[in-house]
Amino acid sequence: MKVIKRTIALCLILISVMSVFCVSANAAGNIQDTVINISAVNNDGGTPRMSIWRAKRDATSVWCENKSTSGGSLSAWVHRTNDTRTTSVYTVDSYYGTWSYNGATRNMKTLPKGTYYYLPNYVYEHNYSYATLGYIMNKESVAYSIAWSPDSV
Amino acid sequence: MQKKMLTVIISIVCVFALAIVIVGYMFKEGIINDNNLFAKKDVSTTSTKSETEDINTLPSNAFLMEGAECYLDCGMNINEKCPIYFKFNSLSVSKEMGDFDLCDDWSEIKDKNGTIINEYSYVTCNITILNKGEVDFETTLNNLWLFFGTNGGYTEARTYNSKKEDTFAKDYYYCTLKPDTEYNFNIAYVVEDDVIAEFKSDMLVFISFIEPTWDTSYPVIEKQ
After folding, report:
1. pTM
2. In this predicted complex, what is the ipTM?
3. Using CA atoms, how far apart are residues B1 and B204, in angstroms rounded to an integer?
4. Which of A27, A84, B37, B144 is deepest in the core (most CB within 10 A)?
5. Is residue B7 a part of any domain in this protein?
6. What residue numbers bound the domain in which B16 lies?
7. Residue B39 falls within a domain, yes or no?
8. Tell me: the pLDDT tens digits for A22-62?
9. pLDDT tens-digit profile of B49-92?
10. What's the rounded Cα separation, in Å, for the pair B122 and B110?
11. Considering the domain boundaries, does residue A132 fall inside one?
């Protein structure tokens, strides 16, 4: 009986010690921002656009900020893929429905200038490796500055 | 009898927990790992020379081959031109840390010195940037993408020589380019060794400080 108790105690100690080496302190998401700068000349507004694909590392929300101080509001949603070569618009994340000429068919988020938002999505849960921001600039001929990251924690 | 049952149950739980810990350790050390595959596609390219004299014809984005230089127009407002000079000085491949910050592990595995110990390597691009406009230009340096051919796969920056205290901060890549100030950056990417071997002479830096979206109509700038 004593031997069994000692064995159990040793196992618990061993588990505690080994667990320190098994947990990675660097299991961080891809949270660092990319800034999308749109010049006023190139802003024809109203047209759905997609940014460039970035790695989706975890199941957290996509983060987006409309940094413009003089521009207009922004409508935003999320796209997903496993192939960075694709430029297809039919890659809208299922939380946002499907693509349309007015953007995604549901749950698009409108960000007034100077605001940020966490965009829910199922990119990681549905086993896609890359995400990008879909967006519409709601005001034409003004400069926009949009910051976003695929993960948020 | 009850004591014996309890002992058996506790023993089973301990063994199960130990098994989980061992599997986790194997994942961490790369004995079991997943693969991160980048898409590859070969497409023929057309190259052009960048015109630095006529600011009105400058593109906003471009692909640079190693050794190439160009001006891009990063003006944000109507009638505001902001020519920014870029030079892709050199590209190097190594498994060891160079002059850039340590980044967290994704699919690559590193030792305590930051040396990659599995089938990935650092690809480091040294780039000079000079804002020849009259206003500050704020951007993020992860708008410098490493492309494998112009229409193939690409990968995003993983780190650079920021010397910032917090290299995991959300604003890590932010950079304000001031007029007439020269900047020199080592942008480091982590790439599969197989991809490096296939695209060794065809890796390009795609500069997209204005509306990052890859487009094969952007010019490919060759070394003069």
Report:
1. 0.79
2. 0.82
3. 72
4. B144
5. yes
6. 1-32
7. no
8. 444 445 799 999 999 988 877 888 899 999 999 999 999 99
9. 344 457 777 888 999 999 999 999 888 887 788 899 999 999 99
10. 11
11. yes
Domain count, chain B: 2
Q: Would strands B220-221 and B182-192 be described as parallel, antiparallel, or unpaired? A: unpaired
Contact B18 A18 (CB under 8 A): yes
- Using CA coordinates, name the residue in chain A closest to B77: A40
Interchain contact, A37 vs B14, CB within 8 Å: no
Range of the domain at A117: 47-153
Residue B42 included in any domain: no
Domain match, B81 and B54 both: yes
Let me know how long chain B is. Answer: 224
Residue type, B47: S
> How close B209 gets to chain A, by Cα (Å)?
7
- B19 contacts chain A (CB < 8 A): no
Phi/psi for B203 (5° steps) reads: -95, 130
The number of domains in chain A is: 1
**End-to-end Cα separation, chain A, in angstroms:** 47
Residue A149 is which amino acid? Answer: S
Lookup: tokens for B150 = 């112009």
Q: What's phi and psi for B85, nearest 5 deg? A: -90, 135
Q: How far is Cα B28 from Cα B66, in angstroms, rounded to an integer?
A: 35
Asked, for residue A104, whether it belongs to a domain, the answer is: yes
